[in-house]
Amino acid sequence: MTSDERYASAIGRTECTRASLDAGPADRLTAALDYADPAFSDGDVLPHAWHWLYFHAMPRASLLSADGRGASGGLMPPFPGLARMWAGGSFTFLAPLRIGETIERRSQLASITEKSGRSGPLVVTRIEHDYAGPTGSCVRERQEIVLRQPTGYSGAADGERATTQPSWSREIIPDEVLLFCFSALTYNPHRIHYDLRYATEAEGYPGLLVQGPLTCVLLLDLIRRSLPDRPLAAFEYRAMRPLICGRALALKGAATADSVEVWAEDDRGLVAMRGRASFA
After folding, report:
1. In the structure, how many helices (H) and strands (E) does the chain have?
2. Can you tell me the distance from the alpha carbon of 221 to that of 219, in angstroms, rounded to the nearest whole number?
3. In terms of CB atoms within 10 Å, which end of the chain has fewer, N or C?
4. CA-CA distance, 261 to 172, in Å (whole number)?
């Protein structure tokens, strides 16, 4: 039986949610990222990917798995015993999302594919979102979630180094406070981001893990602050290795005439996330 046959009843499942883009969550993320920006007001453009502050799954605590994730219900079918990882995704930017607007998100479980990875069998799910405001579709998003056996962390494989010379860079050291604030703002109860004992003893990581969406937000913010007058048409990103709390994280980027490449490097100089954007 193929994965398409096994999960036929779930593939194509849709749901629709609404959220008001009030200024509070965006102002709180601004503070958590230590930006000295003015407060948001109605009509201001919401930075790319900051819509993750507003559309949350909020399962009852009794439905969560031991790692804080894996709730049953919603778009995803149950995957008992499997650990979830955010692997990557993409955006198409059609129009700005603005503070003060009510946005409708229509989501669909597009595919479920079984694969073999370095750590054993994997299930790769793709979810597609369309965010629509008063004038129609504003952002189309694809998310890839990987589910795997919780075998514990055995050390990150040797990675790759960037070959592009960066035009701009920024270094931060993500600490426990930033990870806690980002998990709270995105309603992410996954324990590997805030429970050090769980992350090290149960999962075997050397420390708390930096959230993949946080790294993506930081890469998009690097573009926004380095090229403020160049609106983006699309962005695609891929997580490649874990980033550990308390260790240096370097954000780097370089632009060509029609696109920009960005990447995040860990404290060893290895690429942990890579992204590419095209200009509008």
Report:
1. 5, 10
2. 5
3. N
4. 19
